[in-house]
Design brief:
Chains A, B: GO terms for molecular function: metal ion binding; potassium:chloride symporter activity. The structure is a homodimer. With about 500 residues, chain A is mainly alpha-helical. The first copy, chain A, contains 21 helices and two strands. In chain A, about 65% of the residues lie in helices and about 0% in strands. Chain A is globular and about 70 Å long. The interface between A and B is large, with 59 and 59 residues. The structure holds potassium ion (2 copies).
Chain lengths: ~500, ~500
C-alpha cells in the first residue's frame, strides 16, 4: 500500500471541499441575515477551516514517497474520499440546525455527496440560504466526482486501470479515449459544465429566481434531487420548469461518454445505435405509458396534460434516480408503485450521474440468460455476445452477473439490518428505503415517500443508510475493499 | 426433435397418474359416503379414465421412431410432463367441488404436483376424504418426481446429460453414481420410500389417525405442505407431531444424494464436511435463534417451549419450503416477517425436494463476490474456487450467477404481471405471493398469509401463478425452453 499518494489525493479532495464551503459562505453573506443565517454562515466557516486544516495535514503526511498508484490505492482513495467528504460536509448542518444529531448531519451530507437526495429535514424551505446552497452544491460536486473523478484518478493508472474503469463505463471506453484518459476527463468536465449552464438558464427562463435556478441546476445535472422547497418541484407549480427538469434529467441519466461521442461525431445516429441508450429510452417510454394508463384508469381527476406530465416526470425522476417529486406517488395505485420500485432498481445508464444497477448491466444479464437457455438444449452451440459491435469477453459478462448478485445480497442483508434497527417500519417502507439509499434515488415509498423524510429514523439507521449510499454510489467495490485486511498491509 | 420418445415418456407419466387417481378413488370408497364423496369419487374415476386414455393415445403416437433422447427432448418431457399432469390432476377438483373454476382447479393441482402447497380452498377440513388423499398424494408424486424422475430420465441420456443433471445436483453427482445413474435413481427412490415409511409411522405414534398420518407424510417428505385440516398443523395441537414434522422437513430439505452417501459410508462426518449442508444447518439455527429472540421480545404471552417450538417450526417449514403453519406468522413483528421472506428465497439444499434458489447457489454466489472483490485490488491473483474438495469451473460458477439473475428477473416481471392482474393486492402480499409460488413454498404474507388462501384471486392470476410454480419447480429452463421456437423444429 502506497500511503503517500493516498494522502496527497485526500489533501486535494479536502482543498476542493474547503473552496466549496467558502463559496457557500459567500453566497450566505450576500443574502439578508437573521439568526439562522448567522449560525449557518458560522457552520460553513468552521467546515471550511477544518477542510483546509485536513488538507494541510494530509499534504504533510503525504510529502514523501512515490507518486505511483495502483488499483488498491485508487479504490482506497475513492472510498475514503467520499467517506471523509461526507463527514466534513456534515459540519455546517450540525452547527447551524438546532437539535440535529451528528448522525443526521452525516446522513444529509452523505445524501448530498452521493447525489441521493434523501433528507432528514421536514421543513426545507425555511433553511438558511447558505445552507440550501451548500446542500445543493454537494450534489453537484458529487455528480462531477462520479463522472470525472473516476476518469481523472484513473488517468494516473497503468493499463490495469481499465478493469476498474470499464467496470464504471462498460463497453464505451476505447473509442473515445484511445488511451488518453486525461483529455477524456477534461472533455467530460467541460460537458458537465455546459449542461449545468444550459440547465440553469433554462430554469431561469421558466420564471424561477436565479438562486432557485442554480440550486436546482446543481441537483438536476447531478441527478441528486435536493430541492430548495419542502414540496420539491411541486412547490413551483410550473409546468415549464417540470418539462425543463424532465429534459435535463433524461440527458444526465445518459452516458456522458456517449453524449460526447454523439456531439463530436455522427450525431443522433450514435445514440440510436447504442444498445444501452435505446433500452433506457424504451424503458422510460414504456413505463411512462403504463403509468399514464393507470392514472387515467384510477381517475384522480386532474387535467389530461397534468396527468401525462406528472407520470412522465415521476418516471424520469425515479429512473434517472433524481428523486424530485411533483406528485405524491406513494399514494398512486399499487401497480404504479410496483413499477416505480422496479425502475429504482434499474437506474440510468453507465457513465452517467444516475444510480441504480444501470441499464447495461440488466441488458447484459438478460442476454446472458438467453445464452444459457439456448445452451440448455444446444450444448454445442457457442455464440459470442456482442454489445455495440464489440464482443464481450466471458469474464466481463461474469463480472456483470456477479455485480447483480452482489447488489441482491447487499439489499437482502440491508433489509434485515434496517428491520432490526427499525422494528416498526413496514416492509414496503423498509425495502424502498434501502433501495432509495443504496441506489441513490432519494425518496422511497410508504413512510419514506416523497412527502415524508428520513428524520424519524434512529441515529444508527441513518449512519448505516449513509454508508449504504456511499457504497451504492461507488458501485460497492471501493467501499467493500476498505474492509479487506490485506488492503492495509504496508508492503503487500 | 425426436417426438417419438417424448410421446412414449408422456404415456408413462399418464399411466402413473392414472394409477395414482385410481388409488385415491379406492381410498375414497373405503370411507363412509355422503354426497360430496360421491362427486369426489366420480371426479377421480373420470380423471383416471382420461389419464389412461391419454396414456394410450401417447403410446400410439410414439410407437414409431428411435429411442434416443437428447437435452431438448429431456427438457421438453419434463416441462410438458408437469404441465399435463397438473391439467389432468385438476379434473377431480373441478368435478367434485361446487362453483370451482377450472383455473382454480389447475392452481390447486399444479400446487400439488410442484409441492407448493398454496391452496384456493378456504375450508379444507370438510373436503371429501378421497379428494384430500389425492391432494396430498399429488405432492408425494411431485416430490418423488423431483428427486428421482430427473435422474431416471437422465439415465437415458448420453454424456451431455451431465450438464442438466449437474444443474440440479450441482457438485454432488460423480462419486455416488460413477456413471451408473439408473442404480442411483433406484437408490434415491428407495431412500424416499424409507423416509416416507418412517415419517408415517412417527406421525401415527404421536396420536394422529392413519389417514392423517399418511396424508401428512405425503406432504412432509415432499416438502409440499398441504394439510388435511384448514388450520394446517396447528389443528392437531400436538407438540410431538410438530417435532416429528420439524425432523422430517429438515431431512427432506437435505440433498438426497448426500444422505445416501452418509448412510452408505462415513456417517455423520460426511454431512459436516459438506459445505451446503453446513450452511443450511447454520442458517436454520441462526434464523430460529433470531426469531425466538424477537418473539420473546414482543412478548406474545405463550410458554417458553411453545415460543421456541413455534419459531423453529416456522423457520424449518419456510426454509425447507414446506409451508405447514402452526402460527400466524403474518402477524409476527416485521423483523421476523422480513427474515421469513429472506428464507423463502434461500430454500433448501440442491437435490432435495425443497424449492427456493437453493443454499449452494447462494454460497457459490457469495464466494464469487469475494473473488471479484479480491480481483478488484489484486488483478493478477487468480485462485480456483473449491466446493467440497472439488474445483468449480468458471462456467459452472457463471451458470450459478446466471441462475440467480434469472430468478431475479422472473420475480420482478411476475410482480409487475400480478400487480396488473390484481391491482388491489398490496405490495407485500403481492411479492410474497410470487415468492410463495415460484419457490414452491405455499403460504406467503399479508393477504396470502398462513390463515388465508389464494381463492380470491382472479382466474388468470391463478393460471399465471400455477405456471410460475411449475417453472420454479423445474428450475426455469425446462419451462422456458418450451417457448423457444427452435425447440420445435422437426429435424434441427
Ligand atoms: K437522487
Ligand atoms: K411447499
Amino acid at each position: 500500500m502506497n500511503y503517500a499518494i493516498i494522502f496527497r489525493l485526500l489533501a486535494l479532495i479536502h482543498l476542493a471541499i474547503g473552496f466549496a464551503l467558502t463559496s457557500s459562505f459567500l453566497v450566505g453573506i450576500a443574502f439578508p441575515f437573521d439568526d439562522g443565517d448567522t449560525y449557518a454562515v458560522r457552520g460553513l466557516e468552521l467546515g471550511a477551516g477544518i477542510s483546509f486544516l485536513l488538507a494541510i495535514i494530509f499534504m504533510v503526511l503525504g510529502r514523501k514517497g512515490k507518486a505511483t498508484i495502483f488499483h488498491k490505492e485508487a479504490l482506497a482513495v475513492i472510498g475514503l474520499g467520499w467517506l471523509l467528504a461526507s463527514t466534513v460536509g456534515a459540519i455546517p448542518y450540525y452547527f447551524s440546525v438546532e437539535d440535529l444529531s451528528f448522525a443526521s448531519a452525516f446522513f444529509e451530507s452523505a445524501s448530498g455527496f452521493t447525489t441521493t437526495g434523501a433528507s432528514v429535514f421536514s421543513d426545507i424551505s425555511n433553511l438558511p440560504h447558505a445552507l440550501l446552497f451548500w446542500r445543493s452544491l454537494t450534489q453537484w460536486i458529487g455528480g462531477l466526482g462520479v463522472v470525472v473523478f473516476f476518469v481523472a484518478i484513473l488517468s494516473f493508472l497503468g493499463s490495469g486501470a481499465k478493469v476498474l474503469f470499464s467496470r464504471e463505463y462498460s463497453g464505451n471506453t476505447e473509442d473515445v479515449f484511445d488511451g488518453r484518459m486525461q483529455t477524456g476527463a477534461l472533455r467530460i468536465m467541460l460537458l458537465y459544465l455546459i449542461l449545468s449552464l444550459l440547465c440553469a438558464v433554462s430554469y431561469r427562463l421558466t420564471g424561477m429566481g436565479w438562486f432557485d435556478s442554480i440550486c436546482h441546476m446543481f441537483t438536476t445535472v447531478s441527478t441528486g434531487g435536493f430541492s430548495t422547497l419542502t414540496e420539491s418541484m411541486a412547490g413551483f407549480n410550473s409546468p415549464a420548469a417540470e418539462w425543463v427538469s424532465i429534459l435535463f434529467m433524461t440527458l444526465c441519466g445518459m452516458s456522458f461518454l456517449l453524449i460526447l461521442r454523439g456531439v463530436r461525431r455522427e450525431g443522433v445516429k450514435t445514440f440510436f445505435a447504442n444498445l444501452e441508450f435505446v433500452s433506457y429510452l424504451g424503458i422510460l417510454v414504456a413505463a411512462s405509458s403504463f403509468i399514464i394508463l393507470i392514472l387515467f384508469a384510477s381517475g384522480i381527476g386532474e387535467s389530461a396534460h397534468s396527468i401525462i406530465r406528472g407520470a412522465i416526470f415521476q418516471v424520469t425522476s425515479i429512473m434517472t434516480t433524481t428523486g424530485f417529486a411533483t406528485q405524491n406517488f406513494a399514494a398512486w395505485a399499487y401497480p404504479a408503485q410496483i413499477t416505480l420500485l422496479c425502475l429504482m432498481i434499474v437506474g440510468g445508464c453507465s457513465g452517467s450521474t444516475a444510480g441504480g444497477v444501470k441499464v447495461i448491466r440488466l441488458v447484459v444479464g438478460f442476454r446472458s440468460i438467453l445464452f444459457h437457455l439456448e445452451r440448455a438444449f444446444r450444448p454445442h452451440v457457442i455464440r459470442p455476445m456482442r454489445v455495440n459491435k464489440r464482443t464481450m469477453s466471458t469474464s466481463e459478462i461474469h463480472e456483470i452477473s456477479t455485480f447483480l448478485v452482489l447488489a441482491f445480497f447487499v439489499v437482502v442483508i440491508s433489509c434485515i439490518v434496517v428491520s432490526i434497527f427499525e422494528p416498526h417500519l413496514d416492509p414496503l417502507s423498509l425495502f424502498s428505503a434501502v433501495l432509495a439509499c443504496l441506489f441513490n434515488i432519494g425518496p422511497g415509498l410508504g413512510e419514506v415517500g416523497p412527502l415524508e423524510n428520513f428524520g424519524a429514523l434512529e441515529d444508527y439507521t441513518k449512519v448505516y443508510l449513509g454508508i449504504l449510499m456511499i457504497m451504492g454510489r461507488l458501485e460497492f467495490y471501493a467501499i467493500l475493499v476498505l474492509f479487506a485486511p490485506s488492503l492495509w498491509k504496508r508492503f503487500s
